[in-house]
C-alpha cells in the first residue's frame, strides 16, 4: 500500500509524455466500460451565488482503472482584477476499492485536457475527416487545448480567432503559427465561423453574457463544439443543426435548466461511442457537441496522468 500520495503540479503535468491518442483512447475506454456498468459517473454539483461565482464538484469511479476521482472547481470573473486566474481547481484520486489516497492534481490542467479530449471523441464521429479550417470564439485556455488536439486529429491549415481580449487572441494566433497554420484575427464572430469546418466556442460565462452567435451563419457540413453551455448562441437558431449530441443524458435530466431544447438532442457521448446513435451521416450535415463537463472525462485524464507520472517517477510525493 502507498505510504505517500503524489502531488502533480501543472508544470509536472505539462512534462508528461502523453499524446492526443492516449487521451482520446482513455476517455473512449471509460465510455465503453460505462456501458458495461464498470464505470460510475455522478451528475455534477453546482453552486451559483448571486455575485457571479461558479462553484462545482464532479465525481466518477471505475474498476479499470481502479480509481475514484473528485474534482472541485471555483470560477470567479472578479479574479482578473485581483491579479489571479479566473478558475482554480484540484482533482483528488483514491483507490476505488480500498479508498487509499493516491494523488492530487492541478485541476485546471485536467479540465483543459479532458474538455478538449471529450470534444475530440465527439469530433471523430461528428466532424468531417477532411476539416481544414477551425474557428475559435473565445481564445483562452480551452481554445489552446482544443487547437492542439484538433491539429493532431484533422488536416488543419488555418484558424480564425475572435475574442474580446486582444492579448489572448494574439497568443492563440501565435500558437497556431508555431503549429504551421495560417491565423486570422477576426473582427466579428460571424467572420470567424461563416466558412469554418470546425468551430470551438469557449466564451467565459457570466451573468452579463448575452447571446451573440447565430447557428444560421454556419456552412453545411460544419461541426461545433460548445464548451460554454451554449450560452453565447441564440437558442432559436440551434434548430439549424441536424444532429446535437450532449455529454450525458442522465446528468442533463437532473439539471433545472436544459442546455438546449430537449427535442433537439439526438443522444449523448456514451451512446455515440457505443454505437447507440449514429454520428455524421452526410457531408452537408451540421453537427454539434454541447456539454456541461463530464466527470468521467476528469477520471480518464487524471488517472492516465497519474499512471504516467508514477511510471516515470515524476511528481512530488507527500507523506500520508
Overall description:
By secondary structure, the chain is of the alpha/beta class. The protein has 2 domains: 4-110 and 296-319, ornithine cyclodeaminase, domain 1; 128-292, NAD(P)-binding Rossmann-like Domain (Rossmann fold, 3-Layer(aba) Sandwich), CATH 3.40.50.720. It has 9 helices and 15 strands. The strands form 2 sheets. An 8-stranded parallel beta sheet has the order 9-8-7-10-11-14-12-13. The chain has a 7-stranded mixed beta sheet with strand order 2-3-4-5-6-1-15. Strand 12 (243-246), helix 7 (249-253) and strand 13 (265-268) form a beta-alpha-beta unit. Helix 3 (107-126) crosses helix 4 and helix 3 (107-126) crosses helix 9 (295-311). The radius of gyration is 19 Å and the shape is globular. The N and C termini lie close together (11 Å). The model has no long low-confidence stretch (mean pLDDT 95).
Summary tags:
single chain; 320 residues; alpha/beta; ornithine cyclodeaminase, domain 1; Rossmann fold; 2 domains; eight-stranded parallel sheet; seven-stranded mixed sheet; 9 helices; 15 strands; 27% strand
CATH domain fold name of the largest domain: Rossmann fold
Spatial sequence of strands, sheet with the most strands: 9-8-7-10-11-14-12-13
Taken as a percent bin, the fraction of beta residues is 25-35%
CATH class call of the largest domain = Alpha Beta
Helical fraction: 25-40%
Amino acid at each position: 500500500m502507498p505510504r505517500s500520495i503524489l502531488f502533480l503540479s501543472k508544470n509536472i503535468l505539462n512534462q508528461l509524455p502523453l499524446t492526443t491518442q492516449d487521451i482520446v483512447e482513455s476517455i473512449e475506454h471509460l465510455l465503453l466500460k460505462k456501458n458495461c456498468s464498470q464505470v460510475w459517473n455522478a451528475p455534477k454539483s453546482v453552486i451559483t451565488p448571486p455575485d457571479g461565482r461558479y462553484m462545482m464538484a464532479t465525481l466518477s469511479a471505475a474498476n479499470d482503472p481502479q480509481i475514484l476521482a473528485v474534482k472541485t472547481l471555483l470560477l470567479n470573473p472578479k479574479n482578473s482584477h485581483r491579479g489571479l486566474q479566473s478558475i482554480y481547481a484540484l482533482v483528488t484520486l483514491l483507490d476505488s476499492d480500498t479508498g487509499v489516497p493516491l494523488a492530487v492534481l492541478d485541476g485546471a490542467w485536467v479540465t483543459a485536457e479532458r474538455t478538449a479530449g471529450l470534444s475530440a471523441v465527439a469530433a471523430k464521429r461528428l466532424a468531417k475527416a477532411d476539416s481544414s479550417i477551425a474557428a475559435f470564439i473565445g481564445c483562452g485556455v480551452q481554445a489552446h487545448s482544443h487547437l492542439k488536439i484538433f491539429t493532431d486529429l484533422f488536416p488543419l491549415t488555418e484558424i480564425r480567432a475572435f475574442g474580446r481580449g486582444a492579448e489572448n487572441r494574439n497568443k492563440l494566433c501565435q500558437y497556431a503559427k508555431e503549429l504551421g497554420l495560417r491565423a486570422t484575427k477576426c473582427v466579428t464572430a460571424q467572420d470567424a465561423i461563416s466558412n469554418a469546418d470546425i468551430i470551438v466556442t469557449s466564451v467565459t460565462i457570466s451573468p452579463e453574457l448575452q447571446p451573440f452567435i447565430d447557428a444560421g451563419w454556419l456552412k453545411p457540413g460544419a461541426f461545433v463544439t460548445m464548451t460554454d453551455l451554449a450560452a453565447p448562441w441564440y437558442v432559436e437558431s440551434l434548430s439549424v443543426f441536424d444532429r446535437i449530441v450532449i455529454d450525458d443524458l442522465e446528468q442533463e435530466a437532473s439539471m433545472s435548466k436544459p442546455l438546449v431544447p430537449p427535442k433537439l438532442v439526438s443522444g449523448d457521448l456514451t451512446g455515440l461511442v457505443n454505437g447507440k446513435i449514429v454520428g455524421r451521416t452526410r457531408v452537408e450535415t451540421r453537427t454539434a457537441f454541447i456539454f456541461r463537463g463530464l466527470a468521467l472525462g476528469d477520471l480518464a485524464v487524471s488517472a492516465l496522468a497519474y499512471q504516467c507520472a508514477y511510471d516515470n517517477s515524476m511528481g512530488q510525493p507527500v507523506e500520508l
